[in-house]
Design brief:
By secondary structure, the chain is an alpha/beta fold. It has helices spanning 2-6, 10-27, 38-48, 67-83, 98-112, 131-136, 141-144, 182-193, 210-215, 224-237, 245-296; strands spanning 55-61, 87-92, 121-126, 172-177, 197-201, 221-223. The longest helix has 52 residues, at 245-296. It is elongated.
């Protein structure tokens, strides 16, 4: 059996992994989160400590390839904010591709909580200029280039925007990023204008946030899909939502990892057993050769 395992067609392995992914997905397997990363808890506490009517700004700095990790973060944060009657402002001053991704999620989660666009949340979208837009928001929306929202509605006609004019009206800014943009929000917005900044990043970016976290410049950070799953657990435990896709995604990842570990163990056992047998066979052949040589003499 071990010899067969060593010569197994790799296509069979890929097929087995596909089955391992599909079955838990169809069964909607979801393992409970046993612990929460401290920085995830920090983001949750920042929002949970806000009063109803406060305003959270969410900047999306990612493109479709990073949606699997960051979109569930956005969903969980929106559930939390809307359940606590916190107003949310969405914007994309750095990455244009993230504008439709964010607007769609705002509308979806807003509908689930019976929130009204323009009154409970506004999505500004993208304006060219990047750093100039970020700095302009310290003065007012028009200086930053925002005169309409994603629906082309003038800001002057939007009820919520009568109270939200600049960073002075942001109780917390959360940047969800797949690029090296969190540093811009920290340096040019958090440090310069005194805005409280938190981030959600892909898992590979998480360790790069530690200097900002340790210095207190970041008030919290969500690490990839794991952070999204942890936040979903916190929101679900508090009764703000019934859950989301991140926990199921993490569960499937865990199952696949277990399968890969088992496969590696079997393959390594097979390798060492096979090598041991080959060594024994070689030893026997050498012994036979010596006996034959002695017999000839």
């Amino acid at each position: 059996m071990l010899e067969r395992l060593m010569t197994l067609d790799r296509r069979i392995i890929f097929l087995a992994l596909l089955v391992v992914v599909i079955i838990p997905t169809l069964l909607k397997v979801s393992f409970p989160i046993s612990s929460v990363t401290p920085t995830t808890q920090d983001v949750y506490d920042e929002i949970d400590g806000l009063e109803p009517g406060s305003c959270v700004w969410i900047a999306l700095d990612y493109t479709p390839p990073a949606m699997a990790e960051l979109q569930p973060q956005l969903s969980a944060i929106l559930h939390h904010c809307f359940a606590k009657d916190i107003k949310v402002l969405g914007l994309n001053p750095l990455i244009a591709e993230s504008a439709p991704l964010g607007h769609k999620e705002f509308r979806k989660i807003g509908t689930e909580h019976n929130k009204i666009e323009g009154t409970d949340y506004v999505y500004l979208g993208y304006r060219p200029g990047q750093l100039s837009v970020m700095l302009g928001l310290a003065k007012d929306m028009e200086t930053a280039g925002y005169t309409k929202d994603m629906n082309d509605t003038p800001l002057s006609d939007i009820p919520m925007m009568k109270e939200v004019k600049s960073y002075d009206d942001a109780n917390l800014l959360i940047a969800l990023a797949a690029f090296k943009t969190p540093g811009y929000w920290v340096q040019f917005v958090g440090d310069r204008f005194g805005v409280r900044v938190a981030v959600g990043v892909t898992n590979v970016m998480y360790t790069a946030m530690f200097p900002y976290i340790n210095s207190g410049q970041l008030k919290g950070a969500l690490p990839g899909l794991q952070g999204a799953a942890e936040y979903e657990q916190l929101v679900k435990t508090a009764g703000y939502s019934s859950g989301g896709p991140a926990q199921a995604g993490m569960s499937i990842q865990s199952i696949v990892h277990y399968a890969l570990v088992l496969l590696l163990i079997f393959c390594n056992v097979g390798y060492f057993v096979t090598r041991h047998r080959e060594a024994k066979a070689l030893e026997r052949r050498q012994t036979e050769a010596v006996k034959q040589s002695v017999g000839l003499e």
